[in-house]
Design a protein that fits this description.
Length: 124
């Protein structure tokens, strides 16, 4: 009898774990649908915000870090939109500059604060 119960539990565990599909995606920050690579500066300025690929996730803050005349400059936003200072830094930035959006914070559908991976771009 105990062998039958063990076999039944084994089969049940296989059916629950072995054949289920994981449909959850890892939330990722994006700008205009991009998460890395080359990005047109005008598209970046027109979008002027970070979004999450998971629509149930809301960005609550991030830091933009970039090289400005040889110095690393970091500016903070307390929501998903670029600040005026960020916009001005991006306007003044030359083509081929590398920019990084880091310390990206969000809140998921359950209301839990989460951190998203940094995203980096090279401006066209």
């Amino acid at each position: 009898m105990s062998k039958h119960i063990l076999v039944l539990l084994f089969c049940l565990s296989i059916s629950v774990t072995g054949f289920s599909q994981n449909t959850n995606t890892v939330p990722q920050a994006t700008i205009a649908g991009h998460s890395s690579g080359m990005l047109n500066k005008q598209l970046l300025l027109n979008t002027a915000k970070i979004e999450c690929n998971d629509t149930s996730c809301r960005i609550t803050g991030f830091t933009l870090t970039m090289n400005v005349r040889g110095d690393l400059v970091s500016t903070l936003s307390n929501d998903n939109a670029f600040t005026e200072k960020m916009k001005q830094l991006l306007i003044d930035t030359q083509a081929n500059a590398k920019i990084v959006f880091e310390d990206i914070h969000a809140v998921n559908a359950a209301g839990t604060a989460i951190s998203l991976s940094p995203i980096a771009f090279k401006l066209e």
